[in-house]
Design a protein that fits this description.
6-stranded mixed beta sheet; 7-stranded antiparallel beta sheet; alpha+beta
Length: 424
């Protein structure tokens, strides 16, 4: 799967439509790109900007659209305090001017030789889907308006008859219903095969989201990733466990030579109803008389343990990695080494695609000017531009030009010092 374009309006900090393309014209091969017809698709795209400029929001467009496409939503969830809360599919822009407008999101992507376009509109402060359309190779597969569904005219009569009786759920996309093998619609009509979208199932597994917004929602920074890794490990067979630990131990030991291995052991069943259990989760170090608990590890080591396995899996099978703030825990050289995996043709043989944000100016060296995006807030709206939109050349020192403020997207530290000085 390769993402070629995203677009959104009335989404978090975005008011007016923001559109970002990840393709450029040209049939000649180029490092960091994969050719598709007369276009080149970027395999690595970086987003730069000051704090709170909207970098995470841009990455979260991909996260949100992919989740809506494949995940059926519940009507309510239980908060930690036990109170029922209505599920919010996506948060809108809360400025007064946008109060009555829908959230609109769109994504173009390629799977195999097929081009897809998916768009969705969400109303009622992000709680209900009102419209939804899927195109394949410029032909409309289905469209949704409120709860009603219509299919492209050439689809078989059994699907047409079924469509009249379909009531699309307000919280979930109709596409997620189609892709759910247990849904009545999917089982009864074999609908994925009928309309030719069976390959969209890979969206469920070939995505890796390491995003700040999702971390905040699901747990504190990479500790949630550590827990997910442990649970996945304990629920795997012996061979898979050996592969998982082998990969993590090798990578972590390279960056932290005294590290020897992770120790993850299931201790006992705690609750036979929900199958929860207690387990040991520690790190063994050379010449240490005891193992260290995961909370005692360095932030960079925790980050590697939590996510390197998922990154390697996507590199192995192909897919998409969304990595927000790669500079958060890593040394700059280590960050560059991880990002560079997606440019290495000998490693990235399946054309896995990476979208990342960073505050590390050195990562500009990894990117062509068309792959580096500057994110700013102007008049309360997020704006995205590419370095190639400016009067610069590939051989120019983009890091220096960026730090001088010629491309925008940097904080005003002079004013910051003045404010602190006044406070003191």
């Amino acid at each position: 799967m390769l993402i070629t374009r995203i677009k959104a309006s009335n989404f978090y900090g975005i008011k007016d439509p923001v559109e970002v393309s990840f393709t450029e014209g040209g049939e000649k091969e180029k490092i960091g790109y994969v050719n598709f017809g007369k276009e080149r698709i970027s395999l690595i795209s970086g987003f730069y900007g000051a704090n709170a400029s909207g970098k995470s929001t841009i990455l979260n467009i991909i996260d949100t659209v992919a989740r809506i496409m494949v995940a059926k939503q519940q009507d309510f969830v239980l908060a930690p305090n036990g109170i029922k809360q209505e599920v919010v599919i996506s948060l809108p822009n809360f400025t007064t001017a946008m109060q009555t407008k829908p959230i609109v999101m769109e994504m173009d992507f390629i799977i195999g030789d097929d081009k897809y376009n998916y768009s969705v509109s969400i109303i009622n402060e992000g709680k209900e889907i009102s419209e939804e359309v899927l195109y394949k190779n410029t032909k409309k597969i289905f469209s949704r308006k409120d709860h009603g569904i219509s299919f492209e005219s050439k689809i078989g009569k059994n699907i047409d008859a079924l469509a009249k009786n379909i009531v699309a759920p307000k919280k979930s996309s109709f596409l997620s219903v189609i892709l759910d093998d247990s849904s009545d619609v999917s089982v009864f009509a074999n609908i994925k095969e009928e309309i030719g979208i069976s390959n969209l199932n890979q969206i469920k597994t070939n995505f890796c989201f390491i995003t700040d917004k999702r971390s905040v929602q699901m747990g504190q920074n990479n500790l949630n990733g550590l827990l997910a890794f442990a649970i996945n490990y304990l629920n795997s067979n012996t061979q898979k466990q050996s592969e998982m630990l082998g990969a993590v131990n090798s990578v972590v030991k390279y960056f932290e030579p005294s590290f020897e291995s992770l120790v993850i052991k299931k201790e006992s069943d705690v609750n036979p109803i929900n199958k929860s259990f207690a387990f040991t989760y520690e790190a063994k170090y050379k010449d240490f008389y005891k193992n260290l608990g995961t909370t005692e590890l360095s932030a960079g080591t925790r980050e590697l343990i939590a996510y390197i396995g998922d990154i390697l899996r996507i590199l192995k099978v192909g897919g998409v990695v969304i990595y927000d703030e790669t500079s958060k825990f890593y040394h700059p050289d280590m960050e560059i080494a991880i990002l560079n995996l997606f440019k290495d043709k000998d490693i990235n043989k399946k054309n896995a695609q990476l979208f990342f944000s960073s505050h590390n100016h050195e990562t500009f060296d990894l990117l062509q000017n068309d792959q580096a995006h500057i994110v700013e807030k102007k008049d309360g709206n997020i704006v995205v531009s590419k370095v190639s939109d400016y009067d610069v050349k590939e051989r120019d020192n983009i890091k220096r030009i960026y730090r001088l403020g010629s491309l925008g997207g940097i904080p005003n530290t002079i004013d910051f010092s003045r404010i602190i000085n006044n406070l003191l």
